[in-house]
Amino acid sequence: YLVHDRRSASLRFSRCCEVVHASRDVQAADPDLVLGIINDLHLEVGIDSVIASDVESLAFLSQIKDRLLAPVFPMSDADTLVILNDKWLSCNS
Q1: In tens digits, what is the pLDDT along the chain, a chain of 93 residues?
Q2: Cα gap 93→80, rounded to integer Å
Q3: φ and ψ at 50, to 5 degrees?
Q4: How far apart are the C-alpha atoms of 1 and 20, rounded to whole Å?
Q5: Angle of helix 31-45 versus helix 55-64 axis, rounded to 10
Q6: DSSP letters for 36-84
């Protein structure tokens, strides 16, 4: 199952992937809406793990992970993600 934005829109053509929600930009997506979609899907079919695929998705997921019913793949907290994603900040430390 896939929650995606325009960057991963081509995945909607995969025969192995069912789109459950699309947003123009993951950073602008409504966290409560996405949370509800994932929790409803988990109650309906069961989800083994919720996994983000990039930094923006990890940042988004960090907003809702404590309220998800499904297990969340281990990830860093939002502040750590920002540091890890800023190569200039990391080089100057």
Answers
A1: 777 777 766 666 777 777 667 777 788 889 999 999 899 999 999 999 998 888 888 888 989 999 999 999 988 887 888 788 787 765 555
A2: 14
A3: -100, 125
A4: 6
A5: 80
A6: HHHHHHHHHH--S-B---SHHHHHHHHHHGGG-SS-B-----HHHHHHH
